[in-house]
Design goal:
The complex is a heterodimer of chains A (246) and B (619). Chain A has 246 residues and is an alpha/beta fold. Chain A has 9 helices and 7 strands. Chain A has 2 domains: 146 residues, Rossmann fold; 37 residues, no CATH class. In chain A, strands 2-1-3-5-7 form a 5-stranded parallel β-sheet, sandwiched between helices. In chain A, strands 4-6 form a two-stranded antiparallel sheet. The termini of chain A are far apart. Chain B is mainly α. Chain B has 3 domains: 196 residues, no CATH class; 240 residues, no CATH class; 41 residues. Helices cover 70% and strands 4% of the residues of chain B. The two termini of chain B are 50 Å apart. Classes of the chains: A alpha/beta (246), B mainly alpha (619).
């Protein structure tokens, strides 16, 4: 695990030839361009790297000129920014937050701690490599990286998005079993989030060869799926409230 | 027998039937049919229509006559009563009766209110008016007092207000008889404007006090909120929709017909700067703003709506007193519009109460998945209350805004806009805390309200929507009312107003609005229409893992940021004023009591008798 080669690399298989519709590609490129110029980021500020974000966001470096601005909820956010060491306890929250984001979504790990644990390498309670648990699109290394580096990293990400090279979020669905396995190793066998990744993968046609596996089988054994409330008239079929006087 | 006689007889029979067998299953159907028949009779009645009966009192003929102004209010009264009877008729009434309450009294009081209001609205002279006025007050009291102990206390609070108002109206009646020698409205119309300024001012003060109390104008509005909010279900809807508009009816007669707006503008307090008309306009404007922002602080849905009932009446009076064609049409139209959506809103709140057992805005939430049709009613209702298209509240408010701008009253315009801002904020609180957000575990099993409650609610919002898209339907009756009052009549089309002073075509506005929705729908469904419904516990709370026992929807202290700014402005001055008046009254009463009961009663009585006899002999 300690060599670079072991970091899972996403294979970008573009459908060769496509549908033959020239306009389809034009549209895709337009979409990619627009997407790269309008990024809302949810910063999950776990460590000291957070202190570099205010200058990056405000007038000195002004990341909003690039179309990047902070967002308060994961549902509307495009980027999940993790800015420092990730303890086991925090990692659960980060995974939940990531899973609640809508695709396409990108993860940026800031500071050395997200790359390899940094100065917390010897800590028993710190997750060392973020991309064992989440598909990270961009690492910005440094202890801490200066705002110039943050901006540089964000521009790289924008470039990747524009070129269509940054689609690691698909990887989370395609190889969910791999990520879930790492999560289970850290958090225990009965680890689960309220989100239904497998259901989403089915719903959006994102199933891959490693979506299902031994770890997802383990998950299904003890998972109690949450059934969303259907909007229903229920005039006759629903039971009466117990204490409802008749 | 004229058709007005028939109308009043039918109304009287409904009242008797309500008291006699209002708890019978057939009564709501019967009352519904009779009320519908009354609406048909009233709508097809040629105007003015005199009643075939009447009597003489102290040499003054007392008679009833319906004109366009009265008919406009009477139609709304009957419509509101129809919706209330239908709502009460089904499961709601059954549970009300099962809870040990008297359904006969509720139905009887409701029908009695209608009768009293019809008698008031059709009055042809001041004695008939006063009879109708008193009947309306007492019938209103009867209806308010039905809702249990708290309701009774609120209704008792109304009694001194109503009696003070009635005494003031009676005083005005006696003065106008002394000064003009007649009580007949058609003659008073010619004689009253010729009176001296101070006499007019006194009449305005006396009649105005009575009407202001009924209408809930500042500063005599405090009785109204608890009295209306605590009344049972459909009674609250009826009271909120039309009952206090009787005060506006009185103001219409007094200000526009008797005193006339030009004479009102002559009554200057500061020469050329501030007239009685300005005073009334500003009282109306303050009545819009202050109660609306009080509504913002309410945590009980019924109280919130009742405060809005007071606030919205300010728009009506303001429109009426501006007195041009547009403004008065807006003010009068707002009476109808407010009745439709306010009744629907109140009924939806009671539908939620019927299922959840509470109207506390801090203990609900997420009910949209369980009561979607009730949600729809409340959504359309608050759109109307906030005065946004496509509902009818937008049309009347637009007319009032327009008239304020044209007539050059920018400050009043600002006040109305401020009131609308407060309305939007508070109705958002209402629908958010009731229907949006997290569904509580104890509410997971509840069902939609029964059809007997849904149908009147849906019919009311449908009416509010239709008259929003085609306000011309309601403006016909408004024009009649304007003509009967002697106001300039606003020319209108089916879709709104077409005039060089400003045009409004709701058909176009609603068309464009729905075209916008259509484009959005095309984009969404054209792109595949993919959506995924997620569970409410799959929600973001800073990464916190939510479970059913964790509350993540906070409704308490809803507008904390706003209250930080404007909170210190709420000082309860009116409540303090009421308390001061009450204790002054107490003091006076105990002094009187001490005088005639405790301190040597025989001597006091002797002195009084001697003095009285001496005065009579000397005279």
């Amino acid at each position: 695990m300690s060599t670079l080669k072991n970091i899972p690399v996403v294979s970008h298989e573009k459908p060769s030839g496509g549908t033959g519709n020239l306009l389809a590609n034009v549209f895709d490129e337009l979409m990619a361009f627009c997407r790269s110029r309008s990024l809302f980021m949810l910063h999950y500020c776990t460590g000291c790297g957070a202190i570099e974000l205010p200058p990056a966001m405000t007038s000195r470096f002004d990341m909003e000129r690039l179309g990047i601005q902070p967002m308060v909820t994961p549902r509307q956010a495009d980027i999940l920014l993790v800015t420092g060491y990730v303890s086991t306890k925090t990692l659960k929250r980060i995974i939940l937050t990531y899973e609640q984001m809508n695709s396409p979504k990108y993860v940026i790990g800031i500071c050395s701690c997200t790359v390899n644990g940094g100065m917390y390498w010897q800590s028993y309670a710190t997750a060392k490599k973020l991309n064992d648990y989440l598909p990270v699109d961009m690492y910005i290394a440094g202890c801490m990286p200066r705002p110039e580096a943050v901006i540089h990293g964000l521009r790289e990400l924008m470039e990747n998005i524009k070129k269509g090279e940054s689609d690691n979020w698909r990887d989370y669905y395609r190889r969910y079993d791999h990520y879930l396995g790492n999560q289970q190793r850290l958090f225990g066998e009965n680890w689960q989030t309220p989100t239904d990744i497998i259901g989403e993968a089915r719903h959006y046609d994102l199933m891959g060869p490693e979506t299902l596996g031994p770890h997802t089988a383990l998950l299904e054994q003890h998972q109690t799926p949450l059934k969303p409330f259907e909007m229903t008239l229920g005039l006759a079929d629903l039971p009466v409230r117990k204490d409802e006087p008749r | 027998m004229t058709s007005l006689d028939l109308l009043l007889i039918l109304s009287g029979l409904t009242t008797l039937a309500g008291f006699a067998f209002g708890n019978h299953r057939a009564y709501p159907w019967l009352a519904g049919i009779v009320l519908t028949a009354q609406i048909v009779i009233l709508a097809s009645m040629p105007l003015p229509m005199a009643a075939g009966f009447g009597f003489e009192m102290f040499g003054h003929p007392v008679g009833w006559q319906m004109d366009g102004f009265g008919r406009f209010f009477a139609l709304i009264t009957l419509g509101a009563a129809l919706a209330s009877v239908a709502y009460t008729g089904g499961e709601w009434g059954e549970r009300y009766a099962a809870g040990g309450k008297n359904l006969r009294w509720l139905h009887g009081a409701l029908a009695g209110n209608v009768l009293a209001m019809l008698l008031l609205l059709a009055s042809g002279d001041l004695i008939a008016f006063f009879i109708g006025w008193e009947l309306t007050s007492w019938a209103g009291f009867l209806l308010m007092a039905q809702g249990g102990e708290r309701a009774l206390r609120a209704a008792m609070r109304y009694v001194p207000y109503a009696m003070a108002g009635a005494m003031a109206v009676l005083g005005g009646l006696v003065l106008s008889l002394t000064w003009t020698g007649t009580l007949d409205l058609s003659q008073l119309v010619m004689l009253v404007p010729g009176l001296a300024n101070w006499k007019l001012a006194l009449l305005l003060a006396l009649f105005g006090t009575g009407f202001a109390i009924k209408m809930g104008l500042l500063p005599v509005h405090l009785w109204q909120t608890p009295a209306y909010a605590e009344a049972p279900g459909a009674a609250t809807a009826f009271l909120g929709a039309i009952s206090s508009r009787m005060g506006l009816f009185g103001f219409g007669l007094l200000l526009v017909k008797l005193i006339t707006l030009t004479r009102l503008a002559d009554l200057s307090f500061i020469d050329g700067l501030f007239s009685a008309r300005d005073l009334i306009e500003w009282v109306a404007a303050l009545t819009i703003v202050l109660p609306t922002f009080t509504a913002l602080k309410q945590n009980d849905a019924r109280y919130l709506l009742a405060w809005h009932g007071i606030g919205q009446s300010g728009y009506m009076l303001l429109g009426l007193v501006i007195g041009d064609a547009t403004g008065s049409a807006g003010g009068l139209l707002h009476v109808f519009n407010h009745a439709t959506y306010q009744a629907a809103l109140v009924l939806s709140v009671f539908a939620v109460m019927h299922r959840t057992g509470t109207a506390d805005l801090n203990s609900m939430g997420g009910l949209v998945t369980r009561m979607p049709l009730t949600f729809l009613v409340m959504l359309l209702g608050i759109i109307g209350l906030a005065g946004l298209p496509p509902m009818n509240g937008f049309v009347s408010k637009w007319l009032i805004y327009r008239s304020l701008m044209i007539e050059g009253r920018p400050l009043l315009f600002l006040m109305t806009v401020l009131g609308t801002l407060g309305t939007i904020l508070s109705v958002y609180k209402l629908i958010h805390n009731t229907f949006l957000g997290q569904l509580r575990a104890e509410h997971e099993q509840i069902r939609e309200a029964p059809w007997s409650m849904l149908v009147p609610m849906l019919a009311l919002v449908a009416l509010a929507f239709v008259t929003g898209v085609a306000p011309g339907l309601a403006l016909n009756y408004v024009n009649e009312a304007q003509a009967a009052l002697g106001l300039p009549v606003m020319a209108h089309t089916l879709g709104g107003v077409e005039s060089p002073r400003g045009s409004l075509d709701m058909l176009w506005i609603v068309g464009v609005l729905f075209a916008g929705f259509g484009i959005g729908a095309l984009l969404f469904y054209g792109a595949g229409g993919r959506s995924k419904r997620i569970h409410q516990l799959d929600n973001y709370a800073g990464g916190h893992f939510l479970s059913a026992d964790v509350r993540y929807q906070y409704s308490d202290h809803f507008y904390a940021g706003l209250m930080h700014r404007i909170g210190p402005l709420y000082r309860g001055s009116f409540t303090q004023m009421e308390a001061a008046l009450a204790s002054a009254n107490d003091l006076l009463a105990s002094l009187m009591q001490a005088w005639y009961r405790q301190a040597v009663p025989a001597l006091t009585l002797l002195i009084a008798t001697v003095l009285g006899l001496a005065w009579m002999i000397w005279r």
